[in-house]
Amino acid sequence: MELRILTWLFPWLMAVLEFLLRASSGNPDAVAFIGPTVGGTALGMLLPLTHASLLVKGHSPQAEGSANTGLIDPTADQWAQRINIILWLGLAAWAASLYLSINHSSPYFPQLDGVRTSLLIGFILWTCAVLADLIRGGK
């Protein structure tokens, strides 16, 4: 459980390190990229969850030169497909977050505060990654 908690905190550690690096160089927008950093590392947390687990591992006599084959758990396969969809939607949200953090006064989003919205998107992506890990059970 401790390893899972450390994994959940990793995006925030990356954000703190990036903030310290940008602040130490005198960058006035040191907070601007925290949202995309957290969102990008949260998407990285989803990647291990995109594979379905095998029920039974075995060697297929028909496929001599190929890798091991096995039966895939249908529930795990459905979860892997859902997480893949979340990953692709999250990638689009991360790109929007990155755009908003670069262009604070965007003509496409005139009512939005770019930095705050970027932070919100990063937090939502992190929450989705943690919930997916909790629901999937760390498998």
Report on this structure.
The chain is mainly alpha-helical. The protein has one domain (2-136). Helix content is 63%, strand content 6%. The protein has helices at residues 2-24, 34-46, 74-102, 114-136, and strands at 54-58, 69-72. It has a two-stranded antiparallel ribbon. Helix 1 (2-24) runs antiparallel to helix 2 (34-46). The chain is elongated and about 55 Å long. It starts with a helix and ends with a helix.
| Percentage of β-strand residues | 5-15%
Shape category: elongated
Described by strand count, sense and barrel closure, the largest sheet is: 2 strands, antiparallel
Count of β-strands: 2
Q: Give the helix/strand class.
A: mainly alpha
User: Element order, helices and strands?
Assistant: HHEEHH
What's the total helix number? 4
Number of domains: 1
| Uncertain residue segments | none
Helix content: 55-70%
Task: Kindly report how far apart the N and C termini lie.
Answer: 13 Å
Please name the defining characteristics of this protein.
two-stranded antiparallel sheet, 139 residues, mainly alpha, 4 helices
List the helices and strands and how they pair.
Layout: H1 2-24, H2 34-46, E1 54-58, E2 69-72, H3 74-102, H4 114-136
Helix pairs in contact: 1-2, 2-3, 2-4, 3-4
Short description:
By secondary structure, the chain is mainly alpha-helical. Helix content is 63%, strand content 6%.
